[in-house]
Structure to design on (161 residues):
């Protein structure tokens, strides 16, 4: 790490702290040459391997723009999309891998999107999972209905007393 004051090629770490979100580390450094102090923020890189084989940095903005298309006309705000993108990034980072396939990102999107808006979920899933017929949509809707029925009966045992 070059000193921003004198460009000396080395520095000494004085203090390290994890950021509030746990995704980065703030380091306080001192230059042994000029004594200047400065801070750095370090984050682990996360790269995406696209279907074409191209590797690019993970982007929450790309997650949001991809999901935004599925959410057109739905009661979903940009804030909702930002939270969804953050959840997706956290899920992908928890794998511990520094490179992930676009397919893994798509899978990580499905759960939070389903919780956010089921219609947007069906739209996204239909493209992502390449639905080819009405039967594919019917099967996805049947799963949603089954989950609603299960959620409706869960917890009813406590009503007895």
């Amino acid at each position: 790490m070059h000193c921003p004051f004198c460009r000396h090629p080395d520095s000494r770490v004085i203090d390290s702290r994890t950021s509030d979100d746990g995704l980065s580390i703030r380091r306080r450094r001192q230059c042994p040459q000029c004594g200047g102090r400065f801070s750095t923020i370090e984050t682990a890189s996360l790269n995406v391997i696209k279907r074409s084989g191209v590797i690019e940095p993970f982007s929450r903005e790309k997650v949001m723009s991809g999901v935004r298309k599925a959410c057109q006309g739905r009661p979903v705000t940009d804030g909702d999309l930002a939270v969804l993108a953050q959840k997706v990034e956290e899920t992908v980072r928890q794998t511990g891998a520094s490179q992930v396939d676009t397919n893994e990102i798509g899978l990580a999107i499905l759960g939070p999107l389903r919780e956010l808006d089921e219609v947007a979920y069906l739209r996204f899933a239909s493209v992502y999972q390449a639905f080819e017929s009405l039967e594919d949509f019917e099967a996805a809707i049947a799963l949603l209905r089954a989950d609603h029925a299960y959620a409706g009966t869960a917890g009813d045992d406590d009503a007895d007393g």
The first helix runs from residue 60 to 70. The chain has two domains: 12-43, 47-153. The mean pLDDT is 88. DSSP finds five helices and six strands in the chain.
